[in-house]
């Protein structure tokens, strides 16, 4: 059985037919990865770092092919795809810098102490070790940075875990190029290509075969809440449940004060609209709820005027475009809702960017207004500024939450509540930019994420590792990182 990629720009087929993997083939890939997983887990920090850098170089060597393929399969501009390639290689290099130090192993040594209180303690040594084989599910909206060799796979490989990744059917040829690059790097590093494999197909059962296989020890996922819940359900029903690290999107509320509008209304209006429409509104950090004070008619006019000048690229797939169209049509029928529109994109999976304006009471009582809609839309909600704190307390968990204010504003209480709701709180900026750095937290409270971990930055590695303590073993038996001689020269915290 085969399927073919589709170009969002004109809905025409792209590339040759792609083989869809059967259940037997998926199981075989997992089995082969499990057989070789120990070779990756036992690499020294230096060799692990070398592998990660080799992968980055192999991906960079395919830049031209990746740009051609990804631009065709997503209709995203070349600049965006080029930036994603760079981000993908940077992620591998950042993890290389980390694992080279051995700091990710978090080695702790407490030597035997007969005088320890309240009782004598034995020799105890703890380190992190990889989980084994993990399943990674590629995201539709980032064909490289969050795809089969995106942050999830990079952090998993850096941890020493083997990867079986589900390619996204919206960009299967791009995924195949990446698979070839990673396998080339494994070969150059003297490792089996079975340590990294992708699974292709449109069959929904592939998700169940992967996440339900007893040899899979964890799942990394970026996508919709609906699929995230399916993965969590599969995990819970397994004989041995496993962690599912699901990043499932967010409304990313933005609170705008009167003082901020008074200082920079035109700049704010343009910035908010541009952020909501960035990438055709297909970012998980898109501002989906924008709260502004009552009686800001001029500000709303500025939003409407800027929106009317804009047009966005087609959406990533026919299914995304269909869901967007249905959602917009339904919300347009809601009472007490004002509609602002941009220019329509007619070809392929094109849509019309639309912004809805209403009050908080209507938003609460109207189905769909407080739900995430993937695509170029957002909801502007008017409310008394004094009610911002109360409204924030009624929102669900979020990836991000933003305050646009002035130095004269008193926002401590609002910030405190938003910090309880979101993984990242932002002051006078826009959420649609996720820096790949150690301090970044990309993950929030449910339902934005299934755990409190991050899927961006080097701390993402710890999702695919677990701590193990070794008690009273002879030096020759201990893993190298735990030995007194410290042959790997890793960071050790002793006593």
UniProtKB/TrEMBL annotation:
Highest taxon of source: Bacteria
Record CDD domains: ALDH_KGSADH
Annotated signal peptide: none
Keywords: Oxidoreductase
Pfam families: Aldedh
Domain Aldehyde dehydrogenase intervals: 3-464
Stated name of the protein: NADP-dependent aldehyde dehydrogenase
Lineage: Bacteria, Bacillati, Actinomycetota, Actinomycetes, Candidatus Nanopelagicales
